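Components:
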Amino acid sequence: MKHTAQTALGAIAAFCAVGISVPASAAWEPVRPVEFIIPAGTGGGADQMARTIQGIVTKHNLMKQPMVVINKSGGAGGEGFLDLKGSSGNPHKIIITLSNLFTTPLATGIPFNWKDLTPVAMLALDEFVLWVNADKPYKTVKDYVDAVKAAPAGSIKMGGTGSKQEDQIITVAVEKATGSKFTYIPYKGGGEVAVQLVGNHVDSTVNNPIEAVAQWRGGKLRPLCVFDAQPMAYDEQIADGKSWKDIPTCKSQGLDMEYLMLRGIFMSPKATKDQVEYYIELFKKVRATPEWQDFMKSGAFNTTFMTGADYAKWVEVEEKRHEVLMKDAGFLAPPGN
Amino acid sequence: MEELVNLFHGFAVALQPFNIMVMIVGIVLGVVIGVLPGLGGANGVAILLPLTFSMPPTSAIIMLSCIYWGALFGGAITSILFNIPGEPWSVATTFDGYPMAQQGKAGEALTAAFTSSFVGALFAVIMITLVAPLVASFALQFGPAEKFAVYFLAFCSFVGLSKEPPFKTIAAMMIGFALAAVGLDSITGQLRLTFGFTELLNGFDFLIAVIGLFGIGEILLTMEEGLSFRGGNAKINLRVVLQTWKELPAYWVTSMRSCVIGCWMGITPAGATPASFMSYGIAKRVSKHGANFGKGEIEGVVAPETAAHAAGTAALLPMLSLGVPGSPTAAVLLGGLLIWGLQPGPMLFVEQKEFVWGLIASMYLGNIVGLLVVLTCVPVFAAILRVPFSIIAPLILVLCAIGAYSVHSSTFDVMLMLVFGVIGYLLKKCNYPLAPLVLAIVLGDKAEEAFRQSLLGSQGSLGIFFSNTLVSTIMILGLIALFWSVIQQGYTRLRGAVA
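Structure:
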């Protein structure tokens, strides 16, 4: 019933926005509204990206059928993945993923693996930055690492989103690289984490750029390094005369950890080649719009785009890597769960 | 003074004909969304978000925030008429609103609810206008320990409220805590008490429990009592609005207190739901008519509605100035801001003056428009109660089922709702109060999360709950509320001994 209501509203939205539709030439096209599932709550990074895409699709009339966004965040996103897994052969369902594509099945033991789904495309990769409060004396990674090493074990608090997910994986990696011990405090969302850092309730975070950029611009937070192989590409000034590009990589500062989070699209099991092709074309069109480019810039995303075998291979490598990282950190679900 | 100049600029923006039209459309949609249980403000705003992408950002946020006001208003309607809270924050409104409707005073209850909502929102907007920067920095002081203290206070101000023996209240609350514990444990990232059922991954959704416990439970009770719907003699003309307005100024103390509680909860951000419960609890304690609460006391409608609306409005402040949403709906609005290319945060007030003040001005106007829209509909709503029970009951059942289904688009939830309905009926027959159960389902997991986050931070020391003035004050207030009746008894006895 909600679907019907959403469909109706979506249709109204589509009509209000443009009026008449443009013919597309793909061999397969949706004949019903497409459900776009977000395996995370409203307001988070995946949610923002999915709703931006929905807005772009509606505004530029990229689809004949409406796109309906649905949050299925239960069980760290397991609800959304299981829903898609159970919709075998339904081409009107796609899902946007974050790292919980790997971490949720590994940490909770729910019966799901990305191979159950059909990979469509990698839209972008989300960066992670090490942040501290601007009032703190640490100006560089070295200052920070020295302070962490000097403090008694467990007294430095690292805030992050969720438990046994990407933020905590990075925290464990930082612990290993520095030979120290943090207390990791999980919160519900990235925006909340950034504000907890501004309020000095935690000592550092590994927020995504988009989650903390407002506080950086407001002079409340300071970025120390980015967990990527090369600095971010955006050279527009943000705060203190610095741009995203000026943030050094953590590796160059002696903190040997690289981590990027997948923002990609999957569809239901047993999708045909034509159907996958349709969505790839759709997302290519989305990526070409100025709105998407603005969004990429505001969140300092890594704009790598991949499809087909390349994408599947990338995901496979990442899965292996997560297995190792999570096993080392002791995050795997107990057997038989 | 600069703020006032900015505000008048804002009014000029909000009063453009297109924006006024957008405002009215938003309010009407919002009321509809608020009335449908389960759909909820957050879902409603999320569904309608794409509608606004073709508008200028200021008009878009005006429309979406008006949907939000509308949903806040609308939530009260089904609570009062059918004992089914359309929104989590209107649960406390059912406690006295529904008995009033049963006594044929539905019009009064609705008028009181809408007017109080308006007063609460107005108070919060004035506060946002005048002290926005100051308040934003206050919100920063709230870490996990402070948040837990607030939840603790909410629970404590509720224990001992009921006429039932305290052990029944505590038993009901414990059932609520147990239900709230099901699902993903957000601190360890592990599943808890799901027994392998994937349907339980998400835990028991509060809305499904409430729709079942209150809505279905009530229908079962009414059926037992002979299929009659009390309240059929409701007055249905607009004069009832004016008559109620004459009564309302007498409750100004309750109103003001509820406004303050609401603003505080909205900013911290605990949200509208704990605000409404806490405000109701405290009003019952303090009021002269406290003993009549729960039997159809108009003050029992004023207190939660004022606080809920003040909190709902104040919740937008941390969203704009810090980028942290104070409620689920605010979270969706936040996503909208980002899509329009506006970056919420400390710089928004500096860089996007026209937008911010246009929005604030629309809060004033939107609430006035909202009040007018809903008040003119009071007689229509009240007239619904004249429909015979045998017709209205199936309709309510269908409405409840749709509501339960729409929360997660799952038929399992509809079954769950029916089970909760039977539980609600049984608990009522055994005189167990439902309110503490509901409160525990809503706030249980949040309180647990804040508690465990605090202890993680303090490495296991409980001292963190008394580590600074702010958190200690809230904790001590909570303890006083918890032991209020004991303290009161002791005081009376002491006075007796002295005399």
